[in-house]
Amino acid sequence: MSLTLRTSPPAPRAPLWAALAAALALGACSGTPAPREEMAVAKTTVDRVTTAPDTAAAAPVELQAARDKLSRAERAMADKDYDQARRLAEQAQADARLAEAKAQATRSERAVNELQDSVRALNEELQRRSPPK
């Protein structure tokens, strides 16, 4: 009695690897929750800063960066790239706050200048009214 071993040709492995890669990709996506809260906070912050007086004039670059990053974060959310959306939302919020701080610094500087002008004017008035020595 002789035994002959029949071997069948190996099954193609490409579909197996593709299925495994797809499963890993889906698993990675489902592990990161959507950053809904971060997106809402970023949008509220950017909207608030955009409508604040003098912000566009005091910090146009930072304000535009905040708008751009928020827009990119919204696209990342739509693409379900939640890590990228979270990062961009946080950056947009930081840029908006920087623009807000720059605008506040500009207003404060203007107020200081006005006070200095008032003090100078008062000193000049006092010198005019004081009798000569």
For this entry, give a set of tags.
133 residues, mainly alpha
Short recap of the structure:
With 133 residues, this protein is mostly helical.
Could you characterize the architecture of this molecule?
This protein has 133 residues and is mainly α. The protein has a domain at 34-103. The chain has five helices and no strands. It has helices at residues 14-30, 36-51, 55-58, 60-78, 82-129. Helix 4 (60-78) packs antiparallel against helix 5 (82-129). The longest helix is centred in the C-terminal third of the chain and has 48 residues, at 82-129. It starts with 13 loop residues before the first helix and ends with a helix. The mean pLDDT is 85.
Tell me the Rg in angstroms: 32 Å
Q: What is the helix fraction of residues, given as a range? A: over 70%
Largest sheet: none
Order of helices and strands: HHHHH
Averaged pLDDT, please? 85
Beta content comes to under 5%
Structural class: mainly alpha
Overall shape: rod-shaped
The count of β-strands is 0
* Structure annotation, total helices: 5
Low-confidence stretches: none
Terminal CA distance: 138 Å
